[in-house]
Amino acid sequence: MKHIPRKRFGQHFLTDTGILDAIVRAIDPRPDEILVEIGPGMGAMTDPVVERCERLTVIELDRDLAARLRRRPELNVVESDVLKVDFRALAESLGAAPGSSRRLRVIGNLPYNISSPILFHLQDAVDLIEDQHFMLQKEVVDRMAAAPGSKDYGRLSVMLQWRQEVESLIDVPPECFDPPPRVDSAVVRVVPKAVAPALDAALLGELVTVAFSQRRKVLRNTLGRWLEGREGVPDFDLQRRAEEVPVADYIALAAALSPRR
Predict the structure, then answer these.
(1) Average pLDDT of the segment spanning 168-193
(2) Cis before 179? omega within 30
(3) What does the pLDDT read at residue 3?
(4) Radius of gyration of the chain, Cα coordinates, nearest whole angstrom
(5) CB burial class (10 A; 0-12, 13-18, 19+) of residue 100?
(6) Is the separation of the CB atoms in 123 and 161 below 8 Å?
(7) Phi/psi zone of residue 108: left (φ > 0), alpha (ψ -120 to 50 degrees), beta?
(8) Residue 112's CB: how many other CB atoms inside 10 A?
(9) Which residue has the higher pLDDT, 177 or 190?
(10) What is the residue-averaged pLDDT of the chain?
């Protein structure tokens, strides 16, 4: 029976075989790797990936699709909202370990309405992740990979790039999907940095949120006030706008302010 895409789940199924082949080549799945797919849908990406890696864990919220996927013995099906999945527990149950070659490789055509929350949710298990390959709204991918000084550079750029390398790989037009979304899409690769900067991630998040709260103003009017009365504040040019500050400068400021362990 044909599955009707459900709007509330943000379902748009990729049907273009040329794009699918390009995505699978970019992922390059291998046997014995631990792969997890978010939102497998009708299995367009699932099928060619599992042919190469032999075993695949899939996370699917749609009850009907999850039931269909369970009929396949090569798939380990987790029926859940991805934002409720404990990726640390999942990784450890699948044999992943920090600092080893056995880490998660996460892939998927993400629901565009919750793509940013998913990206932040995965950061809780970043030390257990080898890489991520996602289909997302192109506007989001542009923001993820943006460089300082561009209109797309913002909080999302900094909060992903401080810990991970982000690379836009493939642009995907709406006609490659059924039903076609109203936006352009893109495939992105996200790879954790080998060494994490020594800082308080929550403090960095607060700092960056304040900095971009009024991006048209110079930082003296926003971040400058937030820094008043804090100890250990290093030299930091507050005459810049938030979008002009490189990720490395935000990292250095957060590291200087983070409690010493």
Answers:
(1) 91
(2) yes
(3) 43
(4) 20
(5) exposed
(6) no
(7) left
(8) 18
(9) 190
(10) 91
Tokens 């934002």 found at: 83
Over the stretch 63-93, which tens digit does the pLDDT of each residue have? 999 999 999 999 999 999 999 999 999 999 9
Q: What are phi and psi of 232, to 5 degrees?
A: 75, 20
* Three-state SS sequence of the chain: CCCCCCHHHCCCEECCHHHHHHHHHHHCCCCCCEEEEECCCCCCCHHHHHHHHCCEEEEECCHHHHHHHCCCCCEEEEECCHHHCCHHHHHHHCCCCCCCCCCEEEEEECCHHHHHHHHHHHHHHHHHEEEEEEEEEHHHHHHHHCCCCCCCCCHHHHHHHCCEEEEEEEEECHHHEECCCCCCEEEEEEEECCCCCCCCHHHHHHHHHHHHHHCCCEHHHCHHHHHCCCCCCCCCCCCCEHHHCCHHHHHHHHHHHCCCC
- Is the pLDDT at 245 greater than 70, yes or no? yes
Strand 75-79 to strand 34-38: parallel, antiparallel, or no bridges (unpaired)? Answer: unpaired
Q: Considering the entire predicted model, what is its pTM?
A: 0.90
